[in-house]
Structure prediction request, 278 residues.
Amino acid sequence: MRKSLITTAVLGALAAPSFVFAADAAPASDFTASYNVGLFSQYIFRGLTQTNNKPALQGGFDVSHKSGLYIGGWSSNVSWLRDNASAGSALYNTGGSLEIDLYGGFKTELGKTGLGIDLGALQYYYPGAHNNNYPKANTTELYGALSYGWLQAKLSGVVSNDAWGFGKKYGGHGGNGDERGAYYAELNANIPLADTGITALLHIGRQEFKDARYVIGGPDASYTDWKVGLTKAFDSGINVGAYYTDTNISAANAVDNWTYAGKNIGDSTGTAFVQKTF
Prediction:
C-alpha cells in the first residue's frame, strides 16, 4: 500500500495534513483475447464462393500469450456441400451447412528486424454426414508465413488424406490417391492509405492439388485466384469494406470440378461486408 500526500491545509497556526491510500495496479495479464463477428454478402474462400453468392454470417475468437503462442476458432455458414443435391451429387447427405475452423500456432518478430514469422496448424471441420461416393470435406493444414510491414507471404500444406472433397477414391470420384502434400501459396498486401483509416487489399494465390479431379481422366482441379479491395476501420471496432475476386478456372475445369448448383463457383464476383471486433 502506498501513501500519497494530497494536500496540507493551514488555518491560522494549525496544519492539517490529508492523506489518501491507493491500491497498487493489478499486474497485466500474459494473455489477450479478441472476438469478431461479421455479415458478408457472400463467403469467398480462396477465390471460390462457399455460399452460392448468398449472405454469410461469420464470427470467431483469438487468444494469445505474450510468448507468441495462440489459439483460435472461426465459423461461417456454407452451402457448397449441398448445392448439387438436386442433381444427386451433393457431397453431404445431411448437414453440410456450417464450416468450423480451429487453429493454433506461434508468431513472433525476428529480433528487431521487423520480419515476422507465423507457424501453425488449422483444422477445417464440416459437420454432417458426407456422401460415401466422395472423400470427406474435412481438411487439415499446416502453415507458415513471413511478413514485413504490410506484405505477407504464406504457404499452407495439406496433411490429411482428403481435402475439401478430393482425395481417396469413392465410387470413381475425387481422384485416385490422397491429397497429402497439396498446398496453397499466397502473397498478400494490406496497404494503409495515408491517415484515412482505409486499407487497400491485394492478394494472389495458387491452389495446387496432387490428383484432384471429380471425373477420372478429367482436368486437374488446381487453379489461381486473386483479390483487390478496400476496407475502412473505425475507432468503435467496426470495419466495412468490399473486394473483387476472380480465378483462372476454365469452363472445362469448372464443369468437372467447380460447378455447384449449375454455377462456376470460381467466377469473378464482388463481396461487401461489415464486421465488428471486440
